[in-house]
Input
Amino acid sequence: MDADMNIYPRRGYGMDHDRYDWQMLIHRPTPAWPGGKQLALWVNVNLQFFPMNPASKTRLPGSMTMPYPDLRHFTLRDYGNRVGIYRLLEAFERHGVKPTVAMSARLAERYPYLLERVLKRGDELIAHGWDMDSPHVAPLAPDAEAELVRRSLARLRALSGQRVRGWLSPGRLETAATPDLIAAEGIEYFCDWVNDDMPYRFRTDAGPLWAMPLSNELDDRFILMDNLHSAESYMEQVMDACDLLLDEARTSGGGRILALSVHPWMLGQPHRIGYFERALAYIMAQPGVWSASAGEIADAYAAAIDTGSNGSV
Amino acid sequence: MSAAAREDTGYYDYWAYEDRPRIVWPNGARLAFWVAPNIEFYELDPPANPQRAAWPQPYPAVAGYSIRDYGNRVGHMRQMALLDKYGIRGSISLSAALCEHHPEIIAMCREREWEFFSHGIYNTRYTYGMSEAEERAMILDSMDTIERHTGRRPAGYLAPALSHSPVTLDLFAELGGIYSCDLFHDDQPTPLRVRGGQRMISLPYSLEMNDTIAYVVNKIEPRRYGQNIRDCFDRLYAEGARSGTVMCVPTHNYQVSCPHRLKAFEESLDYITSHPDVWVATGREIAEYYLANYHDAAADDIARKLQRGAHGR
Output
């Protein structure tokens, strides 16, 4: 232990770091969305490759847990990319939902059919690291991490032909340098921090990023796998969140975001997909809902802030 | 742990729930109800404590840190509006450094005449390993800081992150505290035996009703949490007709105020406050009322029963 536990180097106004400013949501403009819509629906689909021979010391959620060869977990995850995702895509089409797809670079490489299918739909891809065995976590050295970021982005961009402006770290882990490194490679927004319900500016050595609020508490894997809640409860929780955020948007005269992080290997199972479909149907039946990609939401927010239009406080 | 570790807390004697002197709360109420929002500051990079790690991942622990920041940036307003709606003044379990980091929150709570009690300086600084002098200085600092920023010296204490030393309650009593939230042995206030002989009580707080215990440890579904609160209330309200009981719901702005969880909490507050014989109060009000009206009779009853040998320690 340090000699004196009662020393507080950052005890003072604001945050105890320099990445962003302390500002309560009520003290910032939260403009309505294009067309006066009140709730932006951001469905973030995680398409992930979990190698069966993981080498990293840090095992990300969903990774192999059994002695090699862990056929059970490899194939359960693979199920999502073979079967589950097509159930999700059908649900999106039926309910008019526009998803955002976070994809491991190595999955894009391994499953060209799936990549092509997503691209043909016109969905926005965001980077999701190299694979689910390549966490951005200490003690990864900055040089090695810079190479990992460059390789992951270069591969996904080359395979997809998209700019790829967004980033979601595998397992949502970061090193102290991750935001600087992704910003240096042209990333404009990232989705790892869960301290807000609206976008905010996040400082890096390579210029500011938008931090996009992708809820972890409402993530399907967190609710179903970590908390062992039922799929029906997942549906209720999504509906309750939708009600509250819409109500808050209406009361404030502005906008809110309902961000659903989903995994085809969880919700794409036959006994769960129906509840997800009912949740989507419920959300899309509400007046004032705008289903959009993460990049569109970030752009709309930035534009509204710039022009100061409809900036409720 | 010192060589002289005790086999029980030493703070109270055995005292059976039946046949106690009857408590009646103000206006004939049977149940004293209080809500204790924990408003906490967790440091991103606290000094390491060898007995307990602040974060499960290496620096920076993005997920854990950022959801707690969410509580202050977003969740606080939500819970405050809800408590306003039901006429409940919160009794804040406060990381004292939050007065300096986020004075905006303090100002809003002062405006509403909420109570502030001490929850240490930061919730990432544990009592483990502190010398008695260090712990005394930390508690005193917290009390001074809270008094300086709120105009009133705190009456209650909940040790930071529920980390204690063998003399935590003794020190708080010596520094002028009147109630402790650190013990979970009863549904009514109980006199405590502290080394300096001060009149200090244990006020029922609750881990069972605590949202973080419910959601993080027990991993229950939001609607189940709401039902647990109502079930707890029903029983304590019924028993309170015999002798007044205390029910506390300790909350965290980063748990209960998440969009998918607030509704369940609201329903339970609506239920509780719709009953006639409920005294909606603050921790300090309950403690002061008990000390003025029931403490001495309780202490006498405990002493008499001990003397009779009916109740061993």
In short: Chain A has a mean pLDDT of 96. The first helix of chain A runs from residue 71 to 95.
